[in-house]
Design a protein that fits this description.
Layout lengths: L2 H21 L11 E3 L5 E3 L7 H29 L5 H4 L23 H14 L4 E2 L9 E4 L4 E9 L3 E10 L4 E10 L7 E9 L3 E9 L13 H9 L24 E5 L3 H23 L8 H15 L5 H8 L1 H12 L33 H12 L1
Antiparallel strand pairs: 1-2, 3-5, 4-5, 5-6, 6-7, 7-8, 8-9, 9-10
Helix pairs in contact: 1-2, 4-6, 5-6, 8-9
Length: 386
């Protein structure tokens, strides 16, 4: 840092301590209590309803101010501590959102799930409190490609007052494979399910979709609020999304709800007609659920269950074989354990290359591994979320 930067930064640090007190005095002051509604318009209210126009305008103004303060804080951290990427900078990294495929395609919309990515980011920016870019996808995991095989992968991470981590992945290999994956981890102050999204297309002929409120506990009642009654009316509207999961990779009794949207289909029209609106409703409902939940000071048990979720998922993720085939097994193992499920306990020797896909041919040269231990990764998250 240059000397003149120090002169600027010192008074700003004192100012930002006041900003922090204004922006995040505690979780209980962050959200405005509202109501939930299902697709049939039935309201599930909690607390005082604020429906007048002036109140809505005030809330929008406060969110805008909070967002600007968060960006100012990020700019200060960049000056004092080094690079800090704003949301606006992060969302366009590596040319995102892409408009064309790296592979070959005969389709008018070669990037099938890019509208999901774009809608989700717009929704996050408009609806989450103090949304900032997280560096969990930087360095080794932000972007990866295999030019000879015409495949590429991009990852982004964000966090907000409501969510300790939202990761987003898009895999593009032309008509051969399109994947959009995202996981929303609630802040551990909220004993609520994880929002999981996994959408895949193979040869534009076979499609697989999973969207779910993935429970932390076996009993729904052990969460801060029940939620399946909010999802059932949405799921009931879409017959195409009522499939059952194969037991090949996952046990659907662990970390999956009874209202999971699951579909295997061959008619691509299902993507726009059913999957897209259902996905939007599940995302909105998850955010509303958090807003209508009182935060708890007992965060250790929630974090432990998120650790167990990551460990369970890392050992069973069906995309591991695909990543190993395209980018090499060593990089794929690092990607699964250090990015996709960063709290997981890594098994010696990594994951079997055949854990979730076809036998892997020789992939791209592996990248250097991340040597941080599971305990160090868990402690880092606990510290950042405390």
């Amino acid at each position: 840092m240059w000397p003149q930067h120090v002169m600027i930064a010192v008074p700003l640090i004192g100012f930002m301590s006041q900003v922090n007190a204004f922006v995040a005095p505690g979780h209980s002051t962050t959200f405005v209590t509202g109501s939930l509604s299902n697709s049939n318009g039935v309201l599930y209210s909690k607390g005082k309803e604020e429906n007048d126009v002036s109140s809505s305008s005030t809330k929008r103004s406060q969110k805008s101010a909070n967002r600007k303060l968060a960006e100012a804080k990020c700019n200060l951290e960049r000056m004092v501590s080094g690079p800090c990427v704003s949301v606006e900078e992060a969302e366009v990294e590596h040319g995102m959102p892409w408009s064309d495929t790296i592979g070959s395609s005969s389709e008018e919309n070669p990037l099938l799930y890019m509208p999901f990515w774009e809608w989700q980011l717009d929704f996050m920016k408009s609806n989450l409190s103090n949304l900032v870019s997280d560096d969990c996808a930087m360095d080794n995991f932000g972007y990866r490609d295999n030019i000879p095989k015409k495949a590429r992968l991009v990852n982004q991470c964000y966090k907000s007052d409501e969510y300790r981590k939202i990761r987003m992945t898009y895999y593009d290999a032309g008509d051969n494979t399109q994947v959009f994956n995202s996981v929303w981890y609630p802040d551990p102050a909220y004993n609520l399910p994880i929002l999981g999204i996994d959408l895949l297309a193979f040869n534009r002929k076979k499609y697989l979709a999973i969207v779910d409120f993935q429970p932390l506990h076996e009993k729904e009642s052990d969460h801060a609020q029940t939620y399946e009654h909010l999802l059932k009316p949405i799921k009931d509207d879409y017959e195409s999304l009522k499939g059952r999961m194969s037991a090949k990779f996952y046990d659907e009794t662990q970390f999956f709800s009874q209202q999971m949207l699951f579909a295997r289909f061959e008619d691509e029209d299902v993507v726009q007609q059913d999957l897209f609106p259902a996905f939007q409703k599940y995302v909105k409902t998850h955010v509303d659920l958090i807003r209508n939940t009182t935060p708890s000071t007992d965060q250790a048990s929630v974090m432990q269950r998120q650790v167990e979720y990551d460990t369970y998922s890392a050992e069973r993720d069906p995309a591991t074989g695909l990543f190993a085939a395209m980018f090499g097994k060593e990089w794929a193992d690092d990607f699964v354990f250090n990015f996709l499920f960063s709290l997981s306990d890594r098994k010696e020797g990594g994951i079997s290359a055949n854990a979730g896909g076809p036998p892997p041919p020789q992939g791209a040269p592996p990248a250097p591994p991340n040597n941080k231990t599971p305990s160090e990764k868990k402690e880092s998250v606990r510290t950042s979320s405390s």
